[in-house]
Specification:
Chain lengths: ~350, ~350
Amino acid sequence: MESGRARPTIKAVAAVAGVSTAAVSQAFNNKGRLSEATRRRILDAAMDLGWSPSAPAAALRSARTRTLALVVRRPTDVLGADPHFSELITGIEGELAPRGYGLLLHLVTDVDEESTLYERLAAEGRVDGAVLTDARTDDPRPALLTRLGLPAVMLGAPDPDAAVPGVGLGHQGAGVGEVVDHLLGLGHRRIAYVAGPAELQHTRLRRRRFEDGLRAAGHRPFAVLHTDFSEGAAIAATEALLAAADPPTAIVYANDSMAVCGIGTAQRSGLRVPADVSVVGYDNLPIGRWLHPRLTTVDQQVQQVGAAAARLLLARCGEDAGDARLDGRPRLVARDSTGPAPH
Amino acid sequence: MESGRARPTIKAVAAVAGVSTAAVSQAFNNKGRLSEATRRRILDAAMDLGWSPSAPAAALRSARTRTLALVVRRPTDVLGADPHFSELITGIEGELAPRGYGLLLHLVTDVDEESTLYERLAAEGRVDGAVLTDARTDDPRPALLTRLGLPAVMLGAPDPDAAVPGVGLGHQGAGVGEVVDHLLGLGHRRIAYVAGPAELQHTRLRRRRFEDGLRAAGHRPFAVLHTDFSEGAAIAATEALLAAADPPTAIVYANDSMAVCGIGTAQRSGLRVPADVSVVGYDNLPIGRWLHPRLTTVDQQVQQVGAAAARLLLARCGEDAGDARLDGRPRLVARDSTGPAPH
DNA sequence: CCTCCTCGGTATATCGATTAACCAATCCGT
DNA sequence: ACGGATTGGTTAATCGATATACCGAGGAGG
């Protein structure tokens, strides 16, 4: 009951190619000095045998696993980061795959669990680096990761003197400026903002952009409400806003999921979107395109951010990863959930 | 510029505990025979030093990586599997984490890429097993994986004589029966089904359930349309159905994303949901709860399926993984997008 | 013609655990 | 009190690659 022949080792390849195992290793790692002819011969032999270097063996000897970690905090019942998730991974994987790197994914529920997880990953030498998501204010993770000697990048505003470089969201909230202009241009003056949890960094950034944008045009926010990204909070915030004596004509939400809740809530209370109230989201989830009305939102190009983060992290792991720069910035996607202000 | 002391090895722990390295290994793997006292002493020493066994070293020697692979096919621009994704991973991770297993995630675009990826993962010895998603008709992967000697489980109908056991969807489509009964009970008689791509296994299963359910009650499907899960196809199918001389009063979609498209399409053409046409989805995506109208759908409990798949795979990897049985079955979640048939 | 360098490789120690084989005490039944 | 288990460990080989040090053969330079 042999389940196929045992996997070939580097020795078999060396034998077939008529060289030493060291030569085989060098051929695969582009190190040492080999003539082009023998390099070819070795590669062909390996191909014939279907051999690839054993990842554990290589990792043990070279102390490099060619694996990166992505830890996602997934608090129960939250409308937040989840959908990014898939796009983010797409962006990251797009950079890892061609270089033969793997992505080790972990889910945790809170920040303590996340920390002990990093400690274990580092102690076990399972990964070469980590992508940190959801930058918080006073985030403990950069210090932890540097203590552990694990290269990392943070998805969030690059903080010049942070222990860990940030990626992509330096212009975070930039799209919110466009949103404000868009709404002002449509004649809206009473504009409310439904924000996320205060401890998330992007919450602060977007909120400030919102307030600054209005102020620059000589207006003031109708209101700014914080939520925990839960369905209930989104609905409650929307109801509170709409119940005001002189309710807002436009509501901007910190993400698309809450915006969808908001549209549903408005519609259920008999209002038309956008005739009575305009709604704007943030994230550009695919679903926004299929809704009625189609959701106006901000595309923050998570996929590119993920790719840039991966490139930066690879570079920090000593890989030659091209340009770590991020191309693209958040941009308004105007669709049907926004329209001229009533009256 | 020392970035902390080098990581401790098993030798250091052995020295501190005053035993041999073999004893340390045994203490961590619950093998061999050690007195409870020394076991404690070793564990304490390890804790003090912050030591965990090096994953690469352990993997090399024991030929077990304690890592499983999940490969997700992510065709561009598809409304399909994506959202499962996050829930599926949650379910899998919930079983892996407590056992110290990791999940290696890869994204591919087509089935060939997926195959060569498995070959590389096997050749490199990077994983102990794999979770296969999206069972297809005449799926080449079970044969491939067995040839590679890589344990695997398939998310899909358990096929008794398949090379790879299936998980969770033996009752796949079971929820569709409930859907049909629900709609019939509401007085609908002209019921259409918008299916997924024919090459996916669950498409066939659900379609059959749909047709059988109607037939059992003495009715016939209004129509069954196949799509490729794209937005365009979902919209086109919906428009075609609604343009019929005597259009259906209810449309059942193979997933929630298409159902949302369908609702949007119907609403844009001036129809009310559910007053003029009822809509049913499949998946129970969170978003369905926030929409207006709230989406009637089928909860197939992807998370439990993921967990069961993980348990089964762990068992096939020689782990003691408890019961691989799946608790829970797909169930109808009746909400507001379905209502009494018009007239 | 001798020396020195470069080219193209090879021999071997090593990464850090696991595991099979082995062994010294202690225990137990008769 | 003695032979055979049992307990509680140890010794040493090994997993499969990588990397450092080394080495022989030509070629160049003087």
